[in-house]
Amino acid sequence: MKKLILLLFIPLISFGQSETENNSKVPSEIFDNIPVYPGCKGSELKKRKCMSERIAKFVERKYNTDIAADLGLTGRQRISVIFKIDTLGNITGVRARAPHRRLEKEAVRVIKLLPKMKPGIQNGKPVIVPYSLPMTFQVKENKKKKEILKPAYLDW
After folding, report:
1. Which domain holds residue 117?
2. pTM of the model
3. Angle at Cα 110 formed by Cα 140 and Cα 95, nearest 5°?
């Protein structure tokens, strides 16, 4: 009976792995042209480096790191963000993972503010390109907040 059930599921598994639709997503190694952040020029390597630097600077300027301190978090905080650059160069499908929901929401907010980019090209056609952005920042202890939260009955 177990073998029969296993044999029934094998065709389902193989059909589940077949390509059902060309949704224009391709691995980054086989692009004719990678997505380009506005203002980035030069070789593919220079464009890739420029894009990474510009996105990092953009996030650094826009991300409100005070949220982590307000939450009482200290030390190094890591946030993983993934998103897609669609065939029109728009940022879509933004998702984030962080130690706290408010940090995730802030990361999603900032990434959605990224400017429209030149889309990736494969075989002469624009394609959807996934992008992963690890964010790390150091949170210093908020001494003012600690003083405010200090219980009144303790005399330090």
Report:
1. 38-139
2. 0.69
3. 100
Tens-place pLDDT, residues 30-70: 778 889 999 999 988 999 999 999 999 999 999 998 899 89
| Residue matched to tokens 């998103």 | 83
What whole-number distance in Å separates Cα of residue 142 and Cα of residue 144?
A: 6
C-alpha span between 60 and 110 (Å, rounded): 10
Residue 144 is assigned to a structural domain of this protein: no
Specify if 8 maps to a domain.
no
User: The domain spanning residue 52 has which CATH number?
Assistant: 3.30.2420
Using the Cα atoms of residue 141, residue 145, residue 151 and residue 156 in order, give the sign of their dihedral.
positive
Helix-strand-coil split of the chain, %, nearest 5 = 40, 25, 35
In a domain, 7, yes or no: no
d(CA 98, CA 65): 13
